[in-house]
């Protein structure tokens, strides 16, 4: 006996959380939240709560782990045991290992790794609460942590997913939509260079639907990119304002 | 994870120059696959098996069928699990030990193709609802790495599943499973095929071999099902694609997937 | 030739700063004829050069830089020094001994041990090998007293100020000896602990407000205010004593 299918989009075109097909979940970003890390940032994207921190560039020991001509970016995407409905074991799952890899590969093209040979940059992404789209929000917040650490970058990397839910192409899937929907397409993008640095899909889409989805995801990326820049400038603008008021 | 630089600078330039002129070091065109050879059923102890060589890359997949408990949220479905091993003998870069990120990514991409295309109808693998189901173990064993493990593994997994047999059985008193003589083929409803392209100096090449993989900026894999739908996509490598390149890669991949599917599925 | 921001506007990595025949200054990069920011900071257009004054960046050694470091390792050749950079520096025994190291006669840990602080100059650096240091010049050597403040290295020029205006004001107003390392570390030596504390407070304010204007005056103002508060506190204490 199969479960009755969950209706994800109602007759008025509203989704389970009341959003329109092209509406992003609410996003809040803060840069420079941890004292010890060289760079850090925090994001709340819908119910996702994600913290990113960067240490480096620094010499790595043992020496043979580093590369002679560029910095080595090491990335750890990890979910806290209490981040999901059913407690998750703290040991890295296969999914976390795959995500750590694709997230690292999404950020590498942005960093001037060749400027710092023989060093390592450690990036930690901790998912404190998850509700679908964590790899995208993770990439968005990790870029800010890297910029906050003063690591030179070609562009900020921003990420957003689109997908197919109840036969409609929609933007920014939450957890239920990801689980029950027909397809999920996470995309990471460097807007100034028109560069797609992460692209995955699971589900089923016709080539035409895929083209719609990637276009929609990139549009979402561009909107979030504006918020990323605001968040990065925010601290300095606040101090400037403070000083002007004195 | 460090990737040692084994391709000399001269060779890198050679590869890039040839590709700029639409050719590759081994004489192939940009959208040509290496020679494909498939051997089926070579491991009799496994319920299904196939070995695919793509050029000099060799992947052996063995399928074992077991009985176990279903997942709690899918009590009436069988279980598919895909694992991969980059055994040390396959390449000087592979080390013994638990699967690393490359191996895990490989297994998960192959799994995604099979799962999202619903190639195995898991609802038909339920023995005692809520209690006992068939578990299909797909183990990908890379024997020689000369580039493009994803496409090779995906083809080998599909070919192995196509010759997998499950034993006949009878259920008594809703509890006891009695094995009866004879087998029937594992039901397969879809034939997912993965096609990987690499980006080298702005050009897209299909089926990158080892040296091209070292020189490439990034790779992208599209898995198509038999109806021309995409059921998995995976970008890999530390470079990037423009959106236009992504769409072009998709078009090329769709065409190539039909060619490969004929080879894997023909004669059955 | 076009520019896209106002001078000293805050920009972020990837922002297109200028297009045309410009030179890419620090914290920017050029693609074709477009210049982009590579770090968050304040953009500055200086004739044909476009640069970004970074709000935060780590220190990469430059030959001739004065740095403050901490010994982290002693080995047969000398010392490994943490200079607050992704790259650790080497101070050779021969630099300090002025002759080659003789294991039977020289005990390097007696000269500098792990944990010791020192002032040195960068003598060489290319990214394939560790930077090297010298302590041979006047003013260089082991640090024995004072307090160290660490700030983000990009703000060191602000602490020095144009033609030394800021650092000279700090020295005068606090009465402290202040040695500024290009690597973000600053050594403060005052006659009293209160003076040192005041200098540190001033430096922290400079770091916090580095990107604003009129800073030198505001910092001087703050120091004078704090000194007055200090004097009032002292006056409040002394009446009891003087009336004895």
So what's the CATH class of chain A?
Answer: Alpha Beta
Query: How far is the first residue's CA from the last residue's CA of chain B?
Result: 42 Å
Mean pLDDT of chain A: 93
CATH homologous superfamily (4th level) name of chain B: GHMP Kinase, N-terminal domain
What does this structure look like?
The complex is a heterotrimer of chains A (246), B (268) and C (244). Chain A has 246 residues and is α+β, with helices and mostly antiparallel strands. Chain A has helices spanning 94-107, 134-148, 175-180, 207-245; strands at 27-31, 39-45, 48-59, 72-79, 119-129, 158-165, 168-171, 183-190, 195-205. Chain A has 4 helices and 9 strands, in the order E-E-E-E-H-E-H-E-E-H-E-E-H. With 268 residues, chain B is an alpha+beta fold. Chain B has one domain (29-265): Ribosomal Protein S5, domain 2 (2-Layer Sandwich), CATH 3.30.230.70. Chain B is built from 5 helices and 12 strands. In chain B, strand 7 (165-172) and strand 8 (176-185) form a beta hairpin. The N and C termini of chain B lie far apart (42 Å). Chain C is an alpha+beta fold. Chain C is 28% helix and 33% strand. Chain C is built from 6 helices and 17 strands. Chain C has helices at residues 93-97, 108-111, 156-160, 165-174, 193-208, 215-242; strands at residues 2-3, 10-11, 16-19, 23-24, 28-31, 34-37, 41-46, 49-54, 66-75, 78-82, 89-92, 117-126, 129-134, 141-142, 147-150, 177-180, 185-189. Chain A binds chain B through residues 1-2, 64-67, 72, 94-95, 97-98, 100-102, 104-105, 108-109, 185, 190, 193-207, 210-211, 214-215, 218, and chain B through 2, 76, 99, 101-102, 104-105, 107-108, 112, 115-117, 218, 220, 225, 228-243, 246-247, 250-251, 254.
